[in-house]
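Narrative summary of target 7.
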Amino acid sequence: QVQLQESGPGLVKPSQTLSLTCTVSGGSISTNYYAWNWIRQSPGKGLEWMGVIAYDGSTYYSPSLKTRTSISRDTSKKQFSLQLSSVSPEDTAVYYCAIRVATSYPYWGQGTQVTVSS
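Modeled conformation, tokenized:
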């Protein structure tokens, strides 16, 4: 059973870079039918897909966040990471890592609250 766990600071100051890590257990980060995603949910809003890193390391980002988002991975540690630069209070959200298999998302982390505030 694949399990995901997000980690990172819960409080980030405006204009700084938010950095989160997702640690994978029970599965391979290089499995070629998995895509590794970051998704967030701001207060009172729906889920927002941020970006993905595929099994071959290629990345794709939401157009609205593309200029500020970077996703990377460390296969030796079974981790993939999110960096979001130049954050503002509008980036306050619960951040999730999730695996997409075909068109569904069967595996999710529990989510981590990140607040952007001075």
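The CA atoms of residues 72 and 81 lie 5 Å apart.
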